[in-house]
Each structure stands twice: as C-alpha cells, then as structure tokens.
Amino acid sequence: QVQTVESGGGSVQAGGSLRLSCAASGYLYCIYDMSWYRQAPGKEREFVSVIVSDGSTNYADSVKGRFTISQNNAKNTVYLQMNSLKPEETAMYYCKTDPRGSYCHPRASTWGRGTQVTVSS
To answer: For the residues 57-65, what does the mean pLDDT come to?
Structure first.
C-alpha cells in the first residue's frame, strides 16, 4: 500500500522554527518528486516547496530564504526546515509524492493527511 506520511508539526511562537518530515513508502523502483503545500482555514491549498528527483528545489516566494527543503540519501524522505515562522503561516501542511521512473510502480501520486503548524504572535 503506497502512502505518504507527514510528521513534525506543532506550536511555535513567531520567529521560531520547526522541521517537518515526510516519508513515502510502498512504491517499487521509483524515484520521487516530493512537495509541500499548506492550507489555512478558509483558504485554498497553496504550494510551499518542491524537491525534484534530481535534487533541484523550488520555493514559493513567500518562504524563500526562510524555508529549506532537503531529502535523505534514499530519497524517500524529505524535510522542510522552517525558520522565522510568522503567525499567518499557521496552516495544515501537506506533503505530496509524485513517483517517477520507467519501472516505477504504481505511478500514483499520494497526499499525506497533513501535519498542523500553529504560529502564535
């Protein structure tokens, strides 16, 4: 069973830091693009960051210079280091796995259930 599981959310004061983790499992012979999104109450889900299977990264303008995405050696776990957090970044943070590869199975993207980040002022 393929799945994507986030962890590491919590509560922090403005200016603080959190590190989120996201692990993909159940795929065979795959490499991954893995991305983070967030959704605040009453708002649409928005892109935060992505790390592509070749290691290249991209960030939303709002988090550039404060957030860093990285991956483990096996490239099935990604981390999102979030520094200088702001109250308006309070949201549920979701991870998405997009599998790639000629022999990859299954070729189905999965979303995690999310991890809550609360930033107090």
So the answer is: 98
How high is the pLDDT of residue 74?
82
DSSP states of 3-67: EEEEE--EEEETT--EEEEEEEES-BS-EEEEEEEEE-TTS--EEEEEE-TTS-EEE-GGGTTTE
Rg from Cα positions in the chain: 14
Side by side, which strands form the sheet with 3-7? 3-7, 18-25, 77-82, 67-71
Measured CA to CA, the distance from residue 58 to residue 113 in angstroms comes to 22
pLDDT of 86 higher than 90: yes
